[in-house]
Amino acid sequence: MKDLKCGLKECRFNKGYSCCADCITICGNTDCESYEPLEDKRGSLFEAADEFVPANYSVDTKVKCDADCVFNKNHICVSNGITVMGEGEKEAVCLTFIKD
Ligand code: SF4
Q1: Which of 17, 58, 89, 99 has the smallest CB count inside 10 Å?
Q2: Are 77 and 3 in contact (CB under 8 A)?
Q3: Where are the domains of the chain?
Q4: Whether residue 65 has its Cβ less than 6 Å from ligand 1
C-alpha cells in the first residue's frame, strides 16, 4: 500500500505525513502497533522544518491487521489507502476502519 497517510509526524517512519515503514501492524482494536515516536522529532526547535518534508509515497508498505474490518483479508489490509491518526486517548489509530 503506497497511500498510507499518517498524522503522527513524530513517528520514526513518518515522512511528510506519509508512512515509510516496510511493514506495519494494526492491532485488533485498530491501534497502530508500529508507531514509534522519536524524542528528537517530537517538539524540536525546528519542528516547522518537518512540515516541509515532501511526502514519500514510493514505499509499498505491507499492512498486517487483526481488526474485524471489511478491508481485512486473511490479516492483510487490502484497502487502497489508510489514514492513521491519534484519536482521543489513543496515540495512533487506523481511521479507515469499517466494521465487518
Ligand atoms: S482499513 Fe481496516 S483492515 Fe485496513 S488497516 Fe485499517 S482497520 Fe485494518
Answers
A1: 89
A2: no
A3: 3-94
A4: yes
